[in-house]
Amino acid sequence: MNPQIELRPHQKDAIARVIRGGNTLLAHCVGAGKTYEMAASAMELKRLKMVNKPIIVVPNHLTGQMASEFMNLYPSANLLVTRKRDFEKSRRRKFISKIATGDYDCIIMGHSQFEKIGVSRERRQKYMENEIELISAGIEEFKSMSGERWTVKQMESTKKKMEAALEELQNEDYKDDVLNFEELGIDCMFIDEAHNYKNLSFTTKMTRVSGINPQGSKKATDLLLKVQYLQELSPGRNVIFATGTPISNSIAEMYVMQKYLASDALKERDIYAFDLWASNFGKVETTLELAPEGNRYREKTRFAQFVNTPELITLFRQFADVKTPDMIKLDVPTLKDGKYSIVESEPDDFVKEVMETFVERAEAIHNGNVAPDEDNMLKVCHDGKLLAMDVRLIDPDAVPAPDCKLNKCVENVFKVYNEKDGIQVIFSDIGVPGASDKFSVYDYIKDELVKKGIPSDEICFIHDAKNDKARDVMFEDLRNGTKRIIIGSTQKMGTGTNIQRLMVAMHELDVPWRPADVEQREGRILRQGNLNKEVEIFRYVTKGTFDAYNWNILVNKQHFISQIMNGQVVDREFEDIDKNELSYSEVMAAASGDELIKEKNQVDNDVRKYTMLKRSYDDNHYRLQSDIQTRIPQKIKRGEQILDNLQQDIICRDNSDYKRIFAPKTGDEDIFEWNVNNMTFTGKEDAGQYLIDCSKSVKSGDRQEIGDLCGFKIFIERKFMSDHGADIIIKGANEYKKELSSTAEGNITRIKNALASFEDHVETYTEKVNAEKKNLEVNMKQFAEPFQYEDKLNALLERKREIDLTLLERQKEAKKSENLSVEDDSIDCGKTKNTKKL
């Protein structure tokens, strides 16, 4: 290793975990140094001869960067780095053979190249057969439960598609002209940005719950098959995933990570399918959320809460090495004034009119008045995002308001440009360049900035970099300040975009769908290596549009992600507001443009917080009540009964010939004597051997009476499901158990010790009874204490009801007013109603 590089403590810990712990998920935040962790882990595993040929799979555009950093850490490493041309049809066979025959310290390959290396047909066939069997079992179970016909039909359709694919695989003209994955000698696999493979297919009956998408991708299935092969070589080892966002969009992704990396742990718990996992750790709930129209609330069923949380986290942490920014204290810039700069834009009349059409469309879809192929909520949501960005994305001829979102962004970019000597990044996943017949957000911003005096060659689009070389040149121009402004999308400018050196500001024009996308965006500026200690992040929202709905989605998704990643859950059911979520909530409230909706958002958050505290109090209260009324009194009663029995046994023992029978030796003479079953044993050796002989005839789980000794009955009890282990039972008022010794004399000694220990038991159980009585007093005192936030929660719930009723009345009035307007129009027309839509 390069002696000039000192790995940080969390990186060393991660490497140690990979070596000692087996399959590992490096769930480290952006900027934590996962590249060095993977390189060092691969080299250490090979040095220790635990693996022979490791492979590191990274996003395509990062293969060169991964190789460069690997060589920086290990200058003498023998690497095989794939290039795009290596997998061209004419070169592919030769290159794959090179992988199989070469002796490399590590192979570095892009995601798409890795996917072109297939697994054997036999392995794919076996996988399909297993999946068909699972689906068939699910269909039969659902039919027996009288499940929904729609669900059964969908499962049957999935089964038919898989059966067709299996038949096609069996009948294909198989040509073994390229080596498959199993033949390459790869025995260790690192997958960087592993969240790209989260879309793994699985069988489930939960087909109508938000947050569940069982339809998988081919590349995820391909990876699973390769993981399963490596687990056959080294069970529980040598598969390492790295991603800062292992749970990015759906609760099902956690199950997917476990299926990849901890399938044996799931099987040990009899969890063979997603529904079994969900029944153990998930909870489907119905909540009130902001509707896509942005001006009312609706009920929505979603799978967004964890139950049995301690067990779930324990299972997750068995393979996940989690490091969040607050855990490792990265040297990254801070936000100006410690918060995001939320920039609001007022909707003009045109925006309001279009929003009304969205309301009409949504109601028509909800009432079934329109065919799904003609209009659906996905289209409405898409159009809503376009409108929230700029009216010209809806109508190219529309004239935006002077203070629209894009104009405010231009003003802020120009202001920062003049005040600070650094670079700025603008994120927009909407209105990208390239479509000549549509309005381009990118081109508009650039044109306006140029009009204000910023040189055109200082502004660039990430989309202009058509290949890795052009991309590297563009990034280098940004790192040295030759270019000052870059505009791009999350997908193209997220992972691997290391241009933070001079970055002073970031502008988010639209709302991404996933919290992980927000993290990736912010990871470009809040990153180590940025020379600026303080930076700004601007978030732009158009009030009264879909911006509110989209930020609300992030709120819901951030809930369950934070619960697991923080690892601070103590309740069996847990729902809390993560600190990141508060910034999302603030943006959502600002976007709504309605003070009452703003208040509802805050009240809902507070109700959720205090309801969680009340639930925790109630759970504890019920537990205390059970302890006070049942559990502790039973323990006290049982302890006191044992003490009474001990006193009886002490009297029985002392009134017997105990002292004579167990008298110590006098010289060479052993005066031990035991009369049992018409036999008299005058030595401990013979008596102990008799116990051993008796034990041989006792069946598994049975108990056989041997005789009486010192007023106590003696039994031999064979341990359940054991051919050898047995216990000696000494039964008086209490029972005392000693394991049968393999030595004859040792058995008599153990009986003697059991009889002699009665006084010690009295002391032990007296302490236990006194401790339980003290515990009862403490619990009674805690039980009497009221919930300290009861009044506050009741006030919040009352205010929540008032707000909900007001919003409901508003909706009714709006509908009533709309109906009256339609009737008036029909009267004016004299013949028919005016049904013209905006």
Provide an overview of this structure.
The chain is of the alpha/beta class and 838 residues long. Helix content is 51%, strand content 14%. It is built from 28 helices and 22 strands. The C terminus is likely disordered.
Name some characteristics of this structure.
838 residues, seven-stranded parallel β-sheet, 22 strands, 51% helix, disordered C terminus
Question: Topology, pairings included?
Answer:
Elements: H1 9-21, E1 24-28, H2 34-47, E2 54-58, H3 63-73, E3 79-81, H4 89-101, E4 106-110, H5 111-115, H6 121-144, H7 149-171, E5 188-192, H8 218-233, E6 239-242, H9 252-261, H10 263-268, H11 274-281, E7 282-290, E8 297-306, H12 309-317, E9 320-323, H13 325-328, E10 334-335, E11 341-345, H14 349-366, H15 377-389, H16 405-419, E12 423-427, H17 441-451, E13 459-461, H18 468-479, E14 485-488, H19 490-493, E15 503-508, H20 515-522, E16 534-542, H21 547-566, H22 579-592, H23 595-654, H24 658-661, E17 674-676, E18 679-681, H25 684-695, E19 703-709, E20 712-718, E21 726-731, E22 735-739, H26 744-756, H27 758-783, H28 790-829
Parallel strand pairs: 1-6, 1-9, 2-4, 2-5, 3-4, 5-6, 10-16, 11-16, 12-14, 12-15, 13-14, 15-16
Antiparallel strand pairs: 7-8, 17-18, 19-20, 20-21, 21-22
Strand content: 5-15%
Average of per-residue pLDDT values:
82
**General form:** globular
Strand pairing plus helix content: what structural class?
A: alpha/beta
Concise synopsis of the structure shown:
With 838 residues, the protein is of the alpha/beta class. Helix 4 links the parallel strand 3 (79-81) and strand 4 (106-110). The chain is globular, with a radius of gyration of 36 Å.
